[in-house]
Amino acid sequence: GITNFFSQLIVSFGYTPEQSLLYGTPGGAVEIIALIICGYLGDRYGQRLLISISGLLVAILGMILIVALPLSNDGGRLAGYYLTQASPTPFVALLSLISTNVAGWTKKTTVAAIYLISYCAGNIVGPQVFRPSDAPRYVPAEITIICCWVVSMCDILFIYWYCKYQNKKKAAFRSQPGYSKLENQEWLDLTDR
């Protein structure tokens, strides 16, 4: 919802529609910087999912500022909006997880398609919570966004835990006596398990 209604949200801070387009522009820079920093740190420390949560935490803080600050605090609410633009970091981390953890062209394409269809469904449903009757604050929509981000964070933590669990299981299997790796195994037509 915030992607589709950012201009309307900034207008609710007390700016004109023309100013909202101008003031919304730095949000893109915040998003790029958050993606680069989280991508770099995730690669450096080998913890893509956990590092991506930091972008989501920054976005949640930004939305809390928008909800909690009074309408008269235009600058603080605008700063909160800029912080919300760090929210795509888990989306990108999950896309990279699909490309590295799903074997086979058909499965990889199917999983990526389901992921993007779900994303698009969210973009269709999201704007429906921005009701004209809630203007100018849109508090129910903003609280809905916070709740969705918290649920997303729990999903990411579950995916992190599940991947760690599967890796430990596979490591235990490989450490058994008598285990031998097949020659050129990466080129065989094997399933994920």
Describe the structure.
- By secondary structure, the chain is an all-alpha fold.
- Helix 3 packs antiparallel against helix 5 and helix 3 runs antiparallel to helix 7.
- The longest helix has 36 residues.
Q: What can be said about the biggest beta sheet?
A: none
Shape: elongated
Contiguous runs where pLDDT drops below 50 for at least 5 residues: none
Order of helices and strands: HHHHHHH
Distance between the termini: 38 Å
Total DSSP helices: 7
Helix content bin = over 70%
Which structural class do the helices and strands define? mainly alpha
Count the beta strands.
Answer: 0
Radius of gyration: 21 Å
Report the average pLDDT across residues.
Answer: 87
Topology:
Elements (H helix, E strand, L loop, with lengths): L5 H6 L5 H29 L2 H21 L5 H11 L4 H13 L3 H21 L13 H36 L19
Helix pairs in contact: 2-3, 2-4, 3-4, 3-5, 3-7
Short description:
The protein has 193 residues and is mostly helical. It contains 7 helices and no strands. The mean pLDDT is 87.
